[in-house]
Amino acid sequence: MSADEFQSIYTTHVTVSGGRTGSVSTDDGRLDLAVSMPKAMGGDDGPGTNPEQLFGAGYGACFLSALKGTIMRAKAKVGEPSVVASVSLTKNSVPKYRLHVDLEVTIPEADAELATQLVATAHQLCPYSEALRGNASVDLSVKSGGSVSKLEQA
């Protein structure tokens, strides 16, 4: 296998019924949720989750894992990092829909330069970031040691 070939390391199967007003469940039973449309999109804001929340959870968890791996490889002592993912569904006048994601990353005990470098590296490694690159807008902000910095839109 060449370095350019990818080998599957994990596959999940998610069954969706009803679209934005239905349900989602995994074949192993670990996820079984109702899906509701938010009022902002004309729904009734029912008891279920929505695709943007699910995407934010997945992206945030994956990005944090990439960041923790980056921190470990750098042997940096930076405290426990965290990520808040804000996912927006946007549209233009066509209408064409796109996602916009704001990732707010906190690295409590790192100086601003190191924190920014760690986040930039994690953004290159995270498969969600890779999938969105060129397809959605992602803004990264980094909180560290009392300061906040923004990375260029990626």
TrEMBL record:
Gene Ontology BP annotations: response to oxidative stress
Family under the similarity heading: Belongs to the OsmC/Ohr family.
UniProt protein name: Organic hydroperoxide resistance protein
UniProt source species: Novosphingobium malaysiense
